[in-house]
Specification:
Distance between the termini: 27 Å
Number of strands: 14
CATH class of the largest domain: Alpha Beta
Radius of gyration: 21 Å
Order of helices and strands: EHHHEEEEEEEHEHEHEHHEHEHE
Shape: elongated
Number of domains: 2
Structural class: alpha/beta
CATH superfamily of the largest domain: Aldolase class I
């Protein structure tokens, strides 16, 4: 690819309209181009049939489209589908389609970075180095392509989007927030922002920025431990973003947005699955309404953690429910194809 070309899907509306005006093309061409880029997700300017040859040649001379293409697809015995996508520069990412509630809801778990820099001790992605952030287009493409596959496989569209794949979404804040705008826009994929959730390992200042910028989405904190010592042991990010600062940021977020907040809590055998852990977690649920998603741990090669026994998970959940806290226990999905929570690592 010519190194002088710029990524057209990373340009703002103002920038593209200015480019068209500078080269003598009317403003309505912007809407035509946007339609092809976002609603049709074309990967080649020559597929934009209503632009005319001269404009297509102009676009090709200045821009490229950072489209993704499917590399592999694996289908789990439980119906979960894992996709590996190749990016324009040869890098690979993974997305997961999860059918839930007797196949009445379909969630896509999208990646926001190539790799991850947080090094959480239980996560396969954290053992990869972070190569780069994904562009808005590369994020939106995951939703577009997985939705297309969902229609083919299940004869139903996606119902939910979760930024919970490879990478930390709030370390790619600008592109993630731009992708949410495109996904929810009538000129984009026109999906409800109420069905979009950002899952973060916890960056307090960026949680506050989400609130200040009025980004329309739900928010989930990957908590996984309810005391400072235990969380720092498995999640190094807690050393700079401790529970105290995260609770203050989440309270600020809820007060400004009233958007739903969830805690993601992977249950590890003998580490964070005791009643004393549930008691500590209860204290973190008193500042704002919160739902807790307790997640079965999925094995990762080279990691010593094991999943908590079902009876301990159920006792943990029962303790919280009896105290008026909303709890969902999420059983493992797609683990036979390394598509479950914490397993995404571009493993063949």
């Amino acid at each position: 690819m010519d190194g002088s070309l710029k990524n057209i899907r990373s340009q703002t509306e103002t920038e593209l309209k200015g480019f068209l005006k500078e080269h003598g093309h009317p403003e309505f061409r912007y809407k035509q181009i946007s339609h092809w880029l976002w609603q049709k997700s074309v990967k080649d300017f020559r597929a934009m049939k209503n632009l005319g040859a001269k404009l297509i040649e102009l676009l090709e001379a200045h821009w490229f489209i950072d489209g993704i293409k499917e590399n592999t697809r694996q289908i789990s015995e439980d119906g979960t589908v894992k996709f590996r996508f190749e990016l324009y520069d040869g890098a690979m990412i993974e997305s997961v389609l999860i059918p839930v509630a007797e196949k009445k809801r379909f969630t896509v778990c999208v990646s926001s970075q190539v790799g991850c820099s947080l090094n959480c001790s239980f996560c396969a992605t954290g053992k990869m180095k972070r190569m780069r952030n994904l562009s808005p287009g590369e994020i939106v493409d995951q939703v577009f392509e997985v939705n297309k596959a969902c229609l083919e496989i299940y004869d139903a569209p996606l119902t939910n989007i979760v930024y919970m794949g490879m990478g930390e979404p709030l370390l790619n804040y600008k592109n993630v927030s731009s992708s949410i705008d495109i996904i929810s826009s009538p000129e984009g994929l026109h999906m409800s922002s109420k069905r979009i959730t950002i899952s973060t390992a916890g960056i307090a200042k960026m949680i506050k920025k989400l609130a200040d910028d009025h980004v329309k989405c739900n928010l989930a904190l990957s908590l996984h431990a309810s005391t400072e010592d235990k969380r720092s042991e498995i999640m190094p990010i807690n050393d700079q973003n401790d529970l105290s600062s995260l609770m203050e940021a989440l309270q600020y977020y809820y007060q400004k947005t009233k958007n739903r907040i969830s805690y993601e809590y992977i249950a590890f055998d003998g580490f964070n699955d005791g009643i004393e852990d549930a008691m500590a977690l209860e204290k973190l649920c008193k500042k704002f309404p919160v739902r807790i998603n307790i997640i079965e741990y999925n094995p990762v090669m080279g990691v010593s953690f094991e999943k908590a026994p079902v009876d301990r998970i159920d006792a943990f959940a029962k303790y919280l429910v009896e105290r008026g806290i909303m709890v969902t226990v999420r059983r493992s999905r797609g683990k036979d194809i390394d598509a479950a929570c914490g397993q995404l690592a571009n493993k063949a």
